[in-house]
Specification:
single chain, 7 helices, 79% helix
Length: 160
């Protein structure tokens, strides 16, 4: 089986499981899918999983700063200025290797704003979602490899 088809199958199965887990534990399923998507869009592997989690988490913190910061700097134009400053800082943090996945940072921030800053639900949803993304890809690659080995062991040949 091709890696794409195998990953599609395991992603479908694990997406349904994630949706069930999110419902049972009161997590935010779409935030988990943000974490999952960020992992899929990364370079892949264990290091990318950690980078995704770190960047999603810092993005969540930047989002919380924007949500709650208006008490410090007020509303109106100052809020737009702070959005510009925070967006700049989210890019600058990428100078640190473990925080260099800028799309993960922006996704964490946007998800936090979209979920009204409920970090007690956002943080586990992002982390578990990224873990599910890792499992989706890893299990799909495993399935592909197993089916190809089985096919080759049976002496089957590819299409002529």
């Amino acid at each position: 089986m091709s890696p794409l088809i195998a990953i599609a199958i395991t992603t479908g199965i694990l997406s349904g499981i994630w949706g069930w887990i999110a419902t049972v534990f009161g997590l935010i399923s779409w935030i988990g899918f943000l974490g999952c998507t960020c992992y899929f869009a990364s370079s892949g592997g264990y290091k990318a999983l950690l980078q995704t989690i770190f960047c999603n988490t810092t993005g969540m913190l930047w989002g919380l700063l924007l949500i709650h910061g208006d008490g410090w700097w007020g509303a109106g134009v100052a809020g737009y200025v702070m959005t510009a400053v925070v967006a700049t800082l989210m890019c600058v943090q990428a100078k640190q290797q473990w925080l260099s996945y800028i799309p993960g940072t922006f996704a964490g921030c946007c998800g936090t704003i979209g979920a009204a800053g409920d970090w007690r639900l956002i943080l586990p949803s992002l982390i578990i979602g990224a873990l599910f993304g890792y499992l989706m890809k890893a299990s799909g690659l495993w399935l592909s490899q197993k089916t190809l080995k089985s096919r080759n062991a049976d002496g089957a040949t590819g299409p002529a």
